[in-house]
Amino acid sequence: METIHVQHPLNIERVNKEPCVMALGFFDGLHIGHQEIIRTAKKRAEERNLALALMTFSPHPSQIIPMKKKVDHYLSPLEAKRGILAKLGVQKLYVVTFDHAFAKLTPAEFVDHYLIDLQCRHAVAGFDFSFGFKGQGNMGNLAEFGKGAFGVTTVPKVERQGQKVSSTLIRSLLASGNVNGIPEFLGDFYKVTGQIAKHGDSECHEVRIEDYLLPHKGIYEISAEMADAVYNGVCMIEDDPIKVYVKLFNSVKARHKETIQIKWIKKTSSHRMLQPV
Ligand SMILES: Cc1cc2nc3c(=O)[nH]c(=O)nc-3n(C[C@H](O)[C@H](O)[C@H](O)COP(=O)(O)O)c2cc1C
Ligand SMILES: Nc1ncnc2c1ncn2[C@@H]1O[C@H](COP(=O)(O)OP(=O)(O)O)[C@@H](O)[C@H]1O
Fold it and tell me: Is 22:131 a contact under the CB 8 Å cutoff?
């Protein structure tokens, strides 16, 4: 997968582009709703023999525009997003810097410069995707702004348990420590990647995790992947200041600075921190 970072104003001559199907959205977490968008876009790309592209933004629009909640930690920071998108078959990833100049674009300007000029031949997004100044562009008027340059597919709402699957919903499950409820919406357990920051004589390792949203403080059953091997263990999250400690069962020790991927299984009680299951 090719990753192309662009910033407004676009110097279109210098952007590596090709006729494509473009999936649109922020896509934090790549939950089952997002996966449905990408599956649909992939189908359209195959039918039309076009490249599969996806446009996302960085940072989250709420960092620039006042919104109800400011997102400053992610379910899938850009590197994690890249890995997941490549696996889902995305061939070109456009990462647009979301700054004030970009946020001020009218829906027509966004479509002209970021879809038509990037050779989008078909756009795919969910029923609630919005774009352009004050979110005035939507799936009801996207085709009109496209003036026939591309077709549009709107993916209907993906729901579970009577609720729209959303990154906000997954964030609230993390905030309540309800990590075992996440796979229903995410399609998998919630995973974060970090580095072993400190290890002493004890088998309890401190892990440094950046950019990811973490579950609520407490003790969790986890599985950890390091150097292609998977271990079971427990993880303790402290807040104020935020610290993450991992203990792997069977006295497995991790090396300093080793990369560790933590998969959150469920919240547990403190005594199991000492007593492996
Ligand atoms: C060109 C452009 C301008 C935008 N301007 C605004 C804005 O002024 N106010 C706003 O609330 N959102 C704005 N947005 C953000 C969108 O409403 C939306 O959050 C973003 O496109 C991510 O879509 P998603 O949340 O459906 O993934 C803009 C988006 C784009 C692409
Ligand atoms: N549950 C869903 N059903 C259908 N489409 C969705 C769903 N959730 C998100 N989308 C679409 O996925 C893209 C990215 O949406 P985004 O706003 O980043 O997700 P979320 O609503 O989870 O924060 C947009 O095109 C959006 O319309």
Answer: no
Going by their DSSP bridges, the two strands 204-208 and 243-248 should be labelled as: antiparallel
Q: Residue 99, class by beta-carbon neighbours within 10 Å (0-12 exposed, 13-18 middle, 19+ buried)? A: middle
The residue type at 154: T
Ligand found nearest the CA of 123: 2
Establish whether residue 64 lines the binding site of ligand 1, counting it when its CB lies within 6 angstroms of any ligand atom: no
Helix (H) / strand (E) containing 130: strand 130-131
* Best residue among 65, 145, 165 to mutate for probing ligand 1, ranked by most atoms within 8 Å of CB: 65
CATH homologous superfamily of 2-157:
HUPs (3.40.50.620)
Distance 135 CA to ligand 1 centre (A): 5
Got the DSSP string for 188-251?
S-EEEEEEEEE--SSSEEEEE--SB--PPSEEEEEEEEETTEEEEEEEEEETTTTEEEEEESTT
Domain positions in the chain are 2-157, 188-273
Would you say the CB of residue 103 lies under 6 angstroms from ligand 1? Answer: yes
277 falls in which pLDDT band (50, 70, 90)?
very low
Q: Assign domain 188-273 one CATH number from 3.40.50.300, 2.40.30.30, 3.40.50.1100, 3.30.1050.10.
A: 2.40.30.30
ipTM: 0.94
User: Taking the mean position of all CA atoms in its chain, how far away is CA 29?
Assistant: 3
Ligand 1 pocket, 94 CB below 6 A?
no
What would the pLDDT profile of 26-66 be if each residue is shown by its tens digit? 999 999 999 999 999 999 999 999 999 999 999 999 999 99
